[in-house]
Structure formats: structure tokens, C-alpha cells
């Protein structure tokens, strides 16, 4: 039985900040952010957006492509959740009008929980091949103003329908995983911003890659040379370059640096102009590769590396389905990215400082461009979500 992705959709906020302008405002050489870190723009979620609205926007598009009555589980992966108890998936389940017989829950392990959701989804579909699982990975990456992490912020969501009739990629069942208790990046409950030991986090990311790869080889007997492309968790694009050169060295690949770069450069385009989206980043990288590669990737093998600080990681592999292009909407994704509004550093700082009330008092959020769904406000400690006019008409979202 093949298990994999039958539909995949991206949503990212309509506002972005140019990292060149951020560098100028911080008195940093823009080349550091653009070349050294490898980021050009970062998405800035509006005050009436959060992981639920972004996730619902992505998921709305994904479920147009399948029979949604067959979705029996919604798994929401996030590390910027909006409630300690109630799962974000329940809000999305309601906004999308999914069946009440559907299971719905949230999972957590930093950026890696979307991959944990994928393992779970595949196991569920293997048990009931006629069912589908909707995975939503949605996050807002937030560090302190004027910190080293500031240029590696971003936000967005990916939604994937996992089934036994994949049309985009199928996954092999071997996963090489690695867990180690480290404090490279974390966010205590009382903080809105992550605490991070940046340089250490890069070292641990690379160590986790090496260990996951070794464990993957024990499971699969595959070799580096069998892979045509690689997708890495993308906190920023230079991280994937460092990771891929590192893996090439460990695997004793005889490919040149240029040949290695070609194996992952198409996976970087979207992240470079969106920024880190934590749980969604790896899968935004996969979508970027599939949407932007100028070759037909049918039958190509992709090595995938998922990393979540704290830390847990997995190396696994995917094969691109024959005719996958028919199941994608690259023009729609590129239209969404091109239509975004650039904001100034002052506007970004104003949005950054915006806080929702924490005493349960009535609050109505000002309306911004948020796609199909928005956070309308707070009432009696409850988040109130609403559907708004869609920017993209539904008929444009459905495949021919
Ligand atoms: P920093 O200390 O400001 O930067 O923070 P730097 O001094 O290391 O410089 C960055 C690069 O720019 C270096 O390149 C410099 O040489 C270069 P490298 O040596 O690495 O090749 N550079 C220049 N290049 C051209 N022209 C110039 C110039 N100046 C310097 N003028 C850091 C960088 C990434 C550490 C920081 O942004 C940070 O802390 N970010 C957040 C943490 C992070 O993203 N960690 C990644 C691994 S952990 C992870 O991926 C998990 C995560 O997604 C969370 C989760 O799992 O939930 C974060």
C-alpha cells in the first residue's frame, strides 16, 4: 500500500518586512541577513491572524481537492498554540464544517511535530485505507526585537491530506530518528518569544542530522546517491545549505558543492521570502521544490530531514508521484506571494507590540487582509473566529 500526500496547500500572511530594511534599521550590513543567513523577506501576521486562521486558510484549499467526508482525523501541529487545553484543530474543524465523527487534536515537539503527525496519519490510514487524515502545521516564529533571532522570524501554515491514494508524494516507511535532551531553543509558558542559544542550536541541528541519518541507514539500507533531492527543516535557508554540505561529507559523496547545491536549492525559494514557520517549514520547502523545479520530478526520490529543538529529529524519504503537477497550484501560491504588501519597520514594530487582552475583556480586532478566516476578537476569555470574503474565489481553488 502506498501512503502519502494527496493534497497540499500553503497560506502565509499578506504582510511582509524586507530584511534589507530591517538590517538598515538595526545598523547591520544587509548582506549578513540576505547572504549570511539567506533570508530576503519575512512574513508578519496581522493582529487578526493566528495559527488557527492561517491553518484554516491552508486547510480550506487542501480539502477542496478531496472528498472531505472521508477525512476522519484532523491533526494540528504547532508550537505557537493559542490555548493550553483546547486543540487548535477543533476551531479549524468547526470553521471548515467537517463531520462531527472526525477526531481532532493537537501535537507538540517544536518544529518536528508536523512529522510526528505524518507518522501518526500514515499509521491511521494504514489501518483504514478508505479514510483520509488532514494535517495542519501552522506557526508564528517570534524572537525578541533587536536580538540575533529577529531576522529569522516568519509565519505561515501548510495543510496536507494524507491518504492511501497519494497523488503528490508517497513516503517510505523507514524513519531514522534521534532524541536528546538539550536547551537550544524553548519557550516557557510565560513568554511570547522563544529563548534561543542560536549558535548552539545550529550545532545540535547538525548533530541530530548526522545521528538521524545513521539511524536511517540502519533501517533502510539506502545510500546518499539514491536521492535526487533533499528537503531540510528551514529555520533560514543557509541552515539547509550547511546541513546538506555536512550530510554530503558524512556520506562521503563525491558530488561537488555546486552539484550538492542543486539538490536542495528549489526547496529554499518560498522560505527565503516567508521566513521560519517552525512546524510548517520542512513541508513548505517540499512544496517549494515541487512548485518551482523546472524539470518533471515524477519518480524522483527526496531525502527529508525534520528537526525540532529540544531536540528530536527524523530523516526519512519520499518519492514523487507520476503526474503530481496536476495536484498542485503553483500559480496560486506565487500569486499569493506576489500580492503581499510590504510594511515598514515601524509598522512591523507596531504589529509586534500588539497584545490581545489577558483579562477576558471584550475586544474587537481591527480588520486586515487575512484570506478567508480571521480572529474577530475576544469575548469572555474566548477567541472568536469568523469567515470573511475570500480573496481567491472557491472555483479557482478546485482542480480541473
Ligand atoms: P548571529 O549570531 O547574528 O549571526 O545569529 P552570525 O554572526 O553567526 O552570522 C550569520 C552568518 O552571516 C555567518 O555565516 C556570518 O559569517 C555571515 P556562517 O559563518 O554561519 O557561514 N555574515 C555575513 N555574510 C555576508 N556579509 C556580511 C556578514 N556578516 C555576517 N557582512 C543565528 C545567527 C542563526 C544564530 C540567529 O539568527 C538565531 O539565533 N536564530 C534563531 C535560532 C535558529 O534559527 N537556529 C537554527 C537551528 S535550530 C532550529 O532550526 C529549530 C527552530 O526552527 C525552532 C524549533 O525547532 O522549534 C529554530
Task: Describe the structure in your own words.
With 400 residues, the chain is α+β, with helices and mostly antiparallel strands. The chain has one domain (4-396): Peroxisomal Thiolase, Chain A, domain 1, CATH 3.40.47. The protein is 34% helix and 24% strand. The chain contains 13 helices and 18 strands. It has helices spanning 19-26, 30-37, 51-63, 88-96, 113-127, 198-220, 237-250, 257-262, 269-274, 281-292, 330-338, 345-353, 394-397, and strands at residues 4-11, 15-18, 41-43, 71-77, 103-107, 132-141, 154-163, 169-171, 176-179, 185-186, 195-196, 229-232, 301-308, 312-320, 341-343, 363-364, 373-379, 382-387. Strands 1, 4, 5, 6, 7, 8, 9, 12, 13 and 14 form a ten-stranded mixed sheet that branches. Strands 3-2-15 form a three-stranded mixed sheet. The longest helix has 23 residues, at 198-220. It is globular. It starts with a strand and ends with a helix. Residues 392-400 have low confidence and may be disordered. 3-hydroxy-3-methylglutaryl-coenzyme A (HMG) binds at residues 29, 31-32, 35-37, 79, 110-111, 148-149, 151-152, 184-185, 196, 198-199, 201-202, 205, 233, 235-236, 239, 276, 278, 307-309. 3-hydroxy-3-methylglutaryl-coenzyme A (HMG) binds next to helix 2, helix 6 and strand 13.
